[in-house]
Structure formats: C-alpha cells, structure tokens
From TrEMBL:
It comes from the Bacteria. This is Folate family ECF transporter S component. It comes from Anoxybacterium hadale.
Length: 171
C-alpha cells in the first residue's frame, strides 16, 4: 500500500513538473529580462498537496529540465535557487492549511516581492551589472501584476482541483 502511495506521489509530481515546463516555456510572455506566465500554478498545487520540500525540489527540477530541453538563454544557478525557494514558500504557507485568499496573499507576497523582485533582480545584477537598474520599473510592474494574478488564480484552481480529487475518490 505504501509503495502505491509513493508511486502515485511520484507520478503526480512528474505531471506537475511537466505542466510547469509547458506553462513556463510555451504559454508565457517572455522578453530577455522579464517573464509573465502561469508556471507558478503547478508549483503552488504541489506545495498544497505535498509540502515545501517536494514543491521546492519539483520546481528546481522543472527549472533545470526546462533550461536543458528548451534553452532561452544562458543557464544561471541563481534562478534555480529562486525556483526552489518559490516552491518552498508555497508549501510553507499552504501545506496542511486552508487555502484562503489571506494565506495565498502572504505566500504570493513573499514569492513576488521578495524572491522575484529582490532575489531575481540580484541575479540579474550579477549577470548584467548596473544595466539592471533600467529594468527595475518593469520588474516592479510585473511583481504587482503577478501578485494579483496569483492571489486570484491559486485559490480558484485549487478549489476546482479539490472538487475533481473528491469526485475521483468517491468513484
């Protein structure tokens, strides 16, 4: 029975990693320095379902697989660290807790404002030096937009997913 649970968890995580890669690499708006997309959704769902470490590891693996299969620039490990921390954050705030808009707002604020706005800007500074200063207004705009999108979509998608899971379990 335990082996079936582990197999089921592994398959679910692999599915969400594949979904994250698709949403990030193909269904997002990309510029050389800015990405607006929905790759956060599978990671948030993994954080809710399996906790911080699984979500963090899955997002880091998804980032590494995505850059290997569909490179969109040079690999920089800082962004993989940001991916891990994003999964960790969603798991920390949402695992084994009610998925309320307040809790999602806290998690998304950490992700959008601390990890994406601050840490990712640091990675860009390391890569580009002072040229990153020109990107700060666009990065602030992106963080505010993504915060609103995440706070809206995460509870909505989770509630829809939860209803499907309950339907499957009762069948």
């Amino acid at each position: 029975m335990k082996q079936n649970q582990n197999t089921s968890r592994l398959i679910t995580i692999a599915f969400f990693i594949a979904l994250e890669i698709i949403l990030t690499r193909f269904l997002s708006i990309n510029t050389p320095f800015l990405r607006i997309g929905f790759g956060f959704l599978p990671v948030a769902m993994l954080g809710i379902l399996y906790g911080p470490l699984w979500a963090g590891a899955a997002y880091a693996v998804g980032d590494l697989l995505g850059i290997m299969m569909f490179p969109s620039g040079a690999f920089f490990p800082g962004f993989t660290i940001s991916a891990f921390l994003t999964g960790l954050t969603f798991g920390f705030f949402l695992y084994n807790k009610p998925v309320t808009w307040k809790r999602v707002l806290m998690a998304s604020s950490v992700v959008c404002l601390l990890i994406n706005m601050c840490l990712d800007t640091l990675w860009l500074y390391i890569l580009m030096d002072n040229a990153v200063i020109a990107l700060i207004p666009a990065r602030i705009f992106k963080s505010v937009v993504m915060l609103a999108i995440q706070v809206t979509l995460i509870p909505m998608v989770w509630n829809r997913l939860l209803s499907k899971i309950k339907l499957i379990q009762t069948a």
